[in-house]
Amino acid sequence: MEDEHTNSIKIQSGIIQLDDFIIDDPRIISYLLELKNKNEFNSSQIHDKLIRLLHLGCIADNSTTEDTLLKFSQHIQNDCIGVIDMTNSTKLSAGLSEDALTQLYEVFLNFMAKIVRKYDGEVIKNIGDALMFRFSNIDPNDSIMMKNILECGLSMIDSHDELAKQLKEKNLPELDYKISMTYGSVKVAQSTTSNIVDVFGNTVNRCFKINGLCPKNSLVVGINLYEILKDFSDYEFIQFCSIEIKQKYGYEVFEVKRQN
Predict the structure, then answer these.
(1) CA–CA separation, 85 vs 211, rounded Å?
(2) Core-most of 85, 142, 168, 173, by most CB within 10 Å?
(3) Cα–Cα distance between 154 and 210 in angstroms, integer?
(4) Read out DSSP for 179-236?
(5) Which of 111, 140, 82 is nearest to 256 (CA)?
């Protein structure tokens, strides 16, 4: 189909160029083409209507540039961020072939991703041998929700033997891991080329940093999450040497265990 220029509206097969906006809603395109075929296409009126719909959020602007691959949301929300990371992965990988190492990562990451989804969490991405996940826009006053988040991390620890069993069935070595969780504000970024969502900010950075302080097959949380969870009687919170860590890293870290 040939391009149709009507002042500031340009109709092409599959998209509408409206000023600096791009609209790819098939319903809008079909409607405009129908008006054109009936000779009822008033470009000025249609332009104004579409601009109003864009501003109201009734239709989406899918415009982008080659330099814009991520769009950051204009709001900040409070999420619980989690990271689970393999321990001694360098040493472990040294004795494996490339195929075996790939299979090891696949089993580990998919195993943990299923646990995240079981507890209604969202897997964000894997970074090497680590998996990053989140519980989005949570209410810290909802005790059921907060306990569910904590149980997700502890369930990963409880599942160590089951993971080892699955690895053994594939002739792969047993592995250990560390889990960290933090709570706080995050900035959300949406890829303009896919449906992938990512999160950024101090809450994310801190989660990765405290993961390095976590003992193997254990769960640690940051101070913000601890303040929300500390009165839960079913769990024990063990503070790491606070003076040394606070001086070196600027924050406090707590290991979480179930009460015996």
Answers:
(1) 8
(2) 85
(3) 17
(4) EEEEEEEEEEEEESSSS-EEEESHHHHHHHHHHTTSPTTEEEEEHHHHHHHTT-TTEE
(5) 82
| Cα–Cα distance, 17 to 48 (Å, whole number) | 14
Torsion of CA 95, 97, 102, 104, to 10 degrees: -40
User: pLDDT per residue over 157-212, tens digit each?
Assistant: 999 999 999 999 999 999 999 999 999 998 887 655 556 677 888 899 999 999 98
Decide if 83 contacts 132 (C-beta within 8 A): yes
Find residue 80's DSSP bridge partners.
Answer: 135, 183
> Do 255 and 214 meet the contact criterion of CB atoms below 8 Å apart?
yes
Q: Which one has a higher pLDDT value, 158 or 66? A: 158
Neighbouring residues of 83: CB distance < 8 A, sequence distance ≥ 6: 130, 131, 132, 133, 179, 180, 181, 207, 208, 211
Q: What are the structural domains, with CATH classification, of the chain?
A: 4-56 (no CATH), 71-258 (3.30.70.1230)
Render the burial of 159-170: b for 16+ CB within 10 Å, e for the rest: beeebeeebeee
Q: Are 231 and 193 in contact (CB under 8 A)?
A: no
Rounded to whole angstroms, the Cα distance separating 43 from 48 reads 9
Number of H helices, E strands in the chain: 9, 12
Burial class of residue 81 in the structure, from the number of CB atoms within 10 Å of its CB (0-12 exposed, 13-18 middle, 19+ buried): buried
Confidence of residue 8 (pLDDT cuts 50, 70, 90): low
Report the chain's C-alpha Rg in angstroms.
25
